Amino acid sequence: MKVMLWMILGAFLFLISCKESGKEMLKNTKPMSELHRPGFHFTPDSMWMNDPNGMVYYKGEYHLFYQYYPDSTVWGPMHWGHAVSKDMISWEHLPIALFPDSLGYIFSGSAVIDWKNTSGLGKNNEPPFVAIFTHHNMKGEKAGSNDFQYQSIAYSNDKGRSWTKFKGNPVLANHDKLKDFRDPKVIWHKKSQKWIMVLAARDKVKIYSSPDLKKWKFESDFGIKNDNRLWECPDLFPINVEGTDELKWILIVSMQSGAPNGGTGTSYFVGDFDGHHFVNTNQGNAQFWLDYGTDNYAMVSWSDVPDSDGRRLMMGWMSNWLYAQKVPTVRWRSAMTLPREVRLVRCDDGYYRIRSLMISEFDEYWKNKTNIKGDASARTTDIDTNGLYLINITFLRSQGLNMILTSQNRDTLTAGYIADSNVWYIDRSKAGKAGFYDHFASRHTAPAMLKGDTARITILLDRASIELFGDDGLTTMTDIFFPTGILNKIDIVNGNGNSSDGIKKEIFPISTN
Ligand code: FRU
Hints:
Layout: H1 2-28, H2 30-34, E1 47-58, E2 61-69, E3 79-85, E4 91-98, E5 105-113, E6 129-136, H3 138-142, E7 149-156, E8 164-165, E9 182-189, E10 194-201, E11 204-210, E12 217-223, E13 231-240, E14 247-255, E15 265-273, E16 278-280, E17 288-289, E18 297-301, E19 312-317, E20 332-333, E21 340-346, E22 352-358, E23 380-382, E24 388-396, E25 401-407, E26 412-418, E27 423-430, E28 443-447, E29 454-462, E30 465-470, E31 475-480, E32 487-493, E33 504-509
Parallel strand pairs: 1-20
Antiparallel strand pairs: 1-2, 2-3, 3-4, 5-6, 6-7, 7-8, 9-10, 10-11, 11-12, 13-14, 14-15, 15-16, 15-17, 18-19, 19-21, 21-22, 23-32, 24-29, 24-33, 25-26, 25-32, 26-27, 27-28, 29-30, 30-31
This protein binds beta-D-fructofuranose.
């Protein structure tokens, strides 16, 4: 008996010491691992993160849930991590909201405020938060069945702090046995006074309706003829064409392959929705990319932003499934994009397109800081901003533009505009560590949309990411990269590389304190 007790105690102490040494390991590796930790983009404190989930606003708080695996820095049994923010930039980490259970892992999904308590899950006259997510049943998948993904709900009566899974789960079974049947995004459809769910099903979006978030009725399918890409993480929302009363609907779909610069990316369709069907009304049934960089996936919008605010706010996962699990961060993996406001415009060529803006809350972090442009005519600026800054550049289109960012170790990231081919570009091929994936060291382009003698561009740098806003936001590019030092020297020159004629620039440090 005594021996047994000693053995148990020994095992216990061993386990504790392993845990401690694990912590130590993280501490010791901090300088390298934290070199790439962004200053103003959301990251989990530690371990693996992918898609943003359940983004919802309630009483002054923006909630962010996210695909999270707390036991490793690679993908695994999915949980919903949770954080809240007053401005979508500074986040407070909260305990994990949803854990895997006997029905499966907790895959991507959305959350709503059930204002009218249609679900009956509310308490004390407070509307419940309801999360709608995919249960992914690993056992079922391993056993070779096809119906291992189905939709379930959970609710919270304390402003999202604690969650209860609904007893009647799943609320939408996978009757058609579709291997890919996931990522429900639910919205309240005012006109029909019903909940609408868009769901990714292989190469389609399926639309369902419900009076109470518990019973779901199939309405229709939306797809593209002969598309054989895998569709994920849809979103559907109404939006007015900027400055008019014309109302359109946006259907967002993330594509698991075929993004403009390779791998995974977020796309959209513009059309009409009558409570049953989505119809693409853009010319030629166009499908556009929300972002031309390699690192903006699963971008979806916040639910329940008050009408008095009126914005459509979105955020994506700043990575690409091609290499997300291999990127050289140690303590944590993956960040989210900067939240963006999206607007719809009708362009001169007749197409409806989304333009993306930095959210106005972000202005607080840079606008009133000193512009470090110094001498406007100087081509090169040495800055000491810890790698966080915003750059506005105006230049003569015909001259092209190269912005060259370098670190002490000669990591070099370039971005700009190529006049001959009329494209924006980001080149991360010499920007630091790239050996973890064969095609990571690459140059990415996006067709420029606007004409005119001068062009404007805004660039956001956050140590290991660049977000480029061109064409008044009609073109965005988001790329990650992994320099071995901070990029703190900025060279801004014309396309020919040796003059800075006609270039006007502003460089603002971004401060998160
Ligand atoms: C998209 C995705 C979703 C799925 C989740 C699993 O990145 O593949 O389709 O729900 O990630 O983590």
